[in-house]
Amino acid sequence: MNLLEMKNIGKAFDGLEVIKDISLSVEEGEVLGVIGPSGSGKSTLLRCATLLEKVDTGTILYKGETLVHTDEAGTAVYAPPADIKRIRSYFGLVFQNFNLFPHFSVLRNITEAPIHVAGQTKEQAVENARRLLRQMGLEDKEDAYPYQLSGGQQQRVSIARALALKPDILFFDEPTSALDPELTGEILKVIRELASERMTMVIITHEMGFARDVADHILFMDDGVIVEQGNAQELINNPQQERTKLFLNRFFNQ
To answer: In order of start, what are the domains of the chain with their CATH numbers?
Structure first.
């Protein structure tokens, strides 16, 4: 079953096309890696998928439900608000800069949305948050505030916060880009564990070895288009397109 389908997506800013007729799908249990140089459109594509930006053209479906489609006039038409609210619950998003509430404790950062958005009882939300903190190795940090945590700890809290709403699919927008190499390892370990549990994920990353080892499928983007896609191991180890080879040569001696 495809949890996500994006068909013929187009997006421009001030007349500059940054996404050009992109189509992709993500099956339940699949990990999709999205790689490419800065400015290639990766983050914009993710923002379109997660309603942080609106597409100009194209279709997006979650679990077969239409979030947006293009009408006969070529205009993107979004689903009614009630449908959008339901569809929004299907996905979670982990930002590169954590986006935690600085005036909330770790526990409240994780329980706020389950209580006030998903309608969980405080007891349910707290129990689930503590389970997630144990999973993240942060069970002793529930009363801490973000400023008291390392960057790696803050990012693990943000992952727990996204998981607390029990999404069907989890998006990561370069989750290690704000971290030094030592802390990067903490986050990659967590994501590897989620992949082993068959969590459906879309991961934008500059960590090529990680993408090769964790993703099932990889898209290489440049200049707003998908240049090459395929099995993660095969694409990273044996790219077919010259542009992909040039990009990966920055990371590997090929």
So the answer is: 2-90+167-248 (3.40.50.300), 102-166 (no CATH)
